[in-house]
Amino acid sequence: MTGFRLLSFLGTLAVVAATDVKPGTQVECEGAFTEVGGRCVHVELSNSGSWHDSRNFCHGLGGELVNLADVQFYSDLILYLESIHMGKMHFWIGATDIANEGTWVWTDGSATRMGTPFWANYGVNNDQMPTGGTDQNCAILDTNLHYYFNDAACEKTYIFPICEK
């Protein structure tokens, strides 16, 4: 019986570690927000707009464009997006290099990690995003590139926001 208890404990420990939620804590999200990976997010599927419009939309909900600095949360969010089957939509996230070209930061001012596992690869040389220069200063989750980050023109209006609070 001791072996069974140990196995049960290890299984519970693995589930807790995989979900990154501390035992006994529960995230409760209000209104339009849903718990994903221990955080409250809202994936907007009906109102697209520019990066700035989308950020204002999130502010109106009491949130901000999502920060995906944590790779586990990024993974959890991708699994959630795939579970809601919304098709080939692109999503604004809170990373930008508007203030200083080539220096990507989240809306809270923290640095955006560059390279793998966040930014997409493309082309025959397998180059890595971001490559848009001064024309593309806002980041999206690009469904055509398997939800990796891509840089886009901030003025594009067919992209939907993901908010968090």
Characterise this structure.
It contains three helices and ten strands. It has helices at residues 2-19, 51-60, 71-83; strands at residues 34-36, 39-43, 64-65, 91-96, 105-106, 121-122, 127-128, 138-142, 148-152, 160-164. Strands 1, 2, 3, 4, 5, 8, 9 and 10 form an eight-stranded mixed β-sheet that branches. A hairpin with a 2-residue loop joins β1 and β2. The protein is of the alpha+beta class.
Helix % is 10-25%
Uncertain segments of ≥5 residues (pLDDT<50)? 1-24
Shape: globular
Percent of residues in β-strands? 15-25%
Largest sheet: 8 strands, mixed
Radius of gyration: 18 Å
Number of helices: 3
- Terminal CA distance reads 45 Å
- Tell me the total number of β-strands: 10
Structural class of the helix and strand makeup? Answer: alpha+beta
